[in-house]
Amino acid sequence: MLVDGRxxxxxxxxxxxxCVIGGGAAAIVLTHELDNSDIQTLVIESGGFQTxxxxxxxxxxxxxxxxxxxxxxxxxxxxGGTSAWxxxxxPLDPVDFEQRDWIPNSGWPLTRAGLDPYYAxxxxxxxxxxxxxxxxxxxxxxxxxxAPLPDTAILQTSxxxxxxxxxxxxPQYWKQIKRSKNVDIVxxxxxxxxCADRSARIVNEVRxxxxxxxxxxxxxxxxxxxxxxxxxxxxxxASNQVQEAGLGNEHDLVGRNFMEHPYVRLGTVKSNRIDxxxxxxxxxxxxxxxxxxxxxxxxxxxxxxxxxxxxxxxxLFPADxxxxxxxxxxxxxxxxxxxxxxxxLANGLKVATAPHHCLHYLIHRMSVSRVAALRRNxxxxxxxxxxxxxxxxxxxxxxxxxxxxxxxxxxxxxxxTDLDWDxxxxxxxxxxxxxxxxxxxxxxxxPAPMASELQVPFGRHHMGTTRMHPDPKQGVVDENCQVHGxxxxxxxxxxxxxxxxxxNATFTIAALTIRLADHLKSVLRS
Length: 526
Ligand SMILES: Cc1cc2nc3c(=O)[nH]c(=O)nc-3n(C[C@H](O)[C@H](O)[C@H](O)COP(=O)(O)OP(=O)(O)OC[C@H]3O[C@@H](n4cnc5c(N)ncnc54)[C@H](O)[C@@H]3O)c2cc1C
Fold this sequence. Notes:
globular; FAD/NAD(P)-binding domain; eight-stranded mixed sheet; eight-stranded antiparallel sheet; binds flavin-adenine dinucleotide
């Protein structure tokens, strides 16, 4: 059932077995798992199905350190980040779960082998084929004659998924929730407080506000924080009626250890001898795209004490990154998403005043460049995604400023640290040397339009702010994603990642959420 929170009677109290706070990627996976069960589930989502600027403004907040836009990186509507995402899905590597003595605070209480069955179930939810991520030649149906580069002593090729249509699942799950017998969703409604009992050991209910001034409550047996990596921390910190520092924040860890995936354009490579089509164009496997990338082997990372890093290769199209093209891409994404594109007038105007950019791009993308790009020696752009080490000073805090609901805003203190950059430079030096051995010389020449492109050079993955550790002094949640000391409060989000590897976050969020759904089912039925 779908309820519009703006029409709910003031002070009304909903009741449910499970209350899910947020209706983004994690919530969609959780409701998919709880649907068709006897567990009454209520999802509270801030937005609706369409973008709404008033709702979106609730995600605004200051950032200190790196240039980072808190609002742009977290769409506030059903689907959350997946209403604007790229649909890239990649598991963490086995080494990412290990304690690495050169990375402070590293080590998960879980292993990759332990998560593998959940990654397999997540593949089904995202309509992905099963594949071996480390055997690209096996994973990819070899439609092109191109092949991966041979693995060397230090370098290997791995693969990740890109959904054929990253926006397909949103309307499907919207419909599924609307007709579900045991899952209800209340939209246009913002949870503003987790109300705990006097001992702060149990959450009794959550307080919900709408932008129209309505206020109501949800009582449940279990509460799942699934509002994203920034908002989860904001809500715990703001829920300070019983514990002054915030719920679950006895050891001052909530909001700390924030991590992102910085992206760096490395320049281009080309070769007359080596065909890079395999990397630059990817391949299709049962309706989803397979994207190959290069990474250092795990033993090399350990020997050189390096953080994770992957290097993807992308085709270069003239006009990429120019004003008209970027605006046109936003409009097309909106249409594919079956909703009114954001800033439709402003973007429409940019397209209308730069039709030559669009024409140039289309002609090249569809014809001239396609042929040129398929030439074996066409240059390709190298794009690196970096792992960041968790550091407590990278953190989400509350400020004195209030949003339109009257709630304290979040601010982010965030730097890419010397440790991160040192690891990046040493990794690239190793990769460069290996590429040269293979006959590929990297040029640090980034084509002008792309270099000036005003895109956030981060993955928009918000990790670490409610980190997982079995010891309450070192983590906010335990290995079941339960907030330490609060028996009925759980977190479904990349905010629980102790470290984030170099993989896009959502596949691991989904795997952990499926695992959490199994745990909830067993707890509720016992
Ligand atoms: C442009 C873009 C591209 C991306 N590309 C990729 C990619 O290719 N691959 C990948 O893995 N990841 C990608 N991401 C990141 C991905 O979208 C996130 O990892 C994922 O959406 C996180 O899921 P989540 O459920 O934890 O949070 P979200 O998806 O952010 O969902 C949180 C939900 O909670 C709601 N909410 C927030 N506060 C409240 C409140 N107080 N009360 C009620 N509801 C609330 C929000 O409206 C939102 O719907 C991308 C993100 C963006 C923005």
